Amino acid sequence: MRKLMVLPMAGLLALGVVGPVAAGPNVSNTSGSGSSIYGEWSSEGTFGYMSVGFDSAYGAFADIYQESGTWVECEPGDESPAKEKGSVAFDTGPGDGTYGFVGTRTWGYGYDIDVEISRRLETGTASGTIELYTETVDECNDIYGGDAVGEVAALEIDVVGVGSVASFRGSNFYKLPSEFNAHSSYRGKERQATGSIVAGPIDTTLDAAYMSQVTWSEHSN
Predict the structure, then answer these.
(1) In a domain, 201, yes or no
(2) pLDDT tens for the chain, residues 1 to 221
(3) Residue burial 83-96, b: 16+ Cβ < 10 Å; e: rest
(4) In the 8-state DSSP scheme, what is residue 85?
(5) With a threshold of 0.85, does the pTM exceed it?
(6) What angle do CA 118, 187, 165 make, to 5 degrees?
(7) Is-contact 159 124, C-beta < 8 A?
(8) What is the number of domains present in the chain?
């Protein structure tokens, strides 16, 4: 099982900014809140992850990725993958030991999502529609997709909290004497979870997941 990728809370904090409330010349007070569900899954030849959530300023969002296939040793004499694709040129002689991914990659984004997380993170759900794209990849033969086929699919995510609820908080301060003064703070909680996801061709149990909720405020003058 791959290690759970914990998304930094800074990602939510950067999004969740409510429009400034004027308290006087050059004074700004902002605040916001957000909640999210993140999960990963894997099996032989398949790995995927998803992130859904709600931001008080920008609304709901969903991000899904899955790749299914295998890494194979490229045959001697195969054309080197294009450098602009991020690959490294290799010797095409026997036993060059260069590997490339062969399979499919599916990804998608959605904004028409209903996200519900209980107050103590006992349960979490997300439902709505998401636009998915699937493309064929063969890195040994310089095929990096470009043939993506799109579909609009129903999204259903259900998770149940496990273990204890963890709390976090933090603050930042920045000041230029007689010029600028700003401070911000955030606090929230998160909990590990188990559950499942269904989205078009993706229908699987999550190997690892977590739910989180956060609030924040900022002041500057």
Answers:
(1) no
(2) 444 444 444 344 434 433 344 444 578 899 999 999 999 999 989 999 999 999 998 999 999 999 999 999 998 654 555 544 444 444 443 445 688 989 999 999 999 899 999 999 999 999 999 999 999 999 998 888 887 889 999 999 999 999 999 999 999 989 899 888 999 999 999 999 999 999 999 999 999 999 999 999 998 98
(3) eeeeeeeeeeeeeb
(4) G
(5) no
(6) 45
(7) yes
(8) 1
Sign of the alpha-carbon dihedral angle for 48, 52, 58, 59: positive
199: in domain: no
Measured between alpha carbons, how far is 84 from 134 in angstroms, rounded to an integer? Answer: 22
42 domain residue, yes or no: yes
Q: Which domain holds residue 215?
A: 10-194+207-220
Residue type, 130: I
**Within a domain: 200:** no
DSSP string, 140-192: GGTEE----EEEEEEEEEEEEE-SPPEEEEEEEEEEETTTEEEEEEEEEEEEE
- The candidate with the shortest Cα–Cα distance to 134, out of 202, 74, 59, is 202
Q: Are 54 and 128 in contact (CB under 8 A)?
A: no
Q: What residue type is assigned to position 55 of the chain?
A: D
- Name the pairing type of β-strands 166-176 and 59-73: unpaired
Question: Residue 128 corresponds to which tokens in the numbers above?
Answer: 């709505």
Pull the structure tokens for residue 6: 């914990």
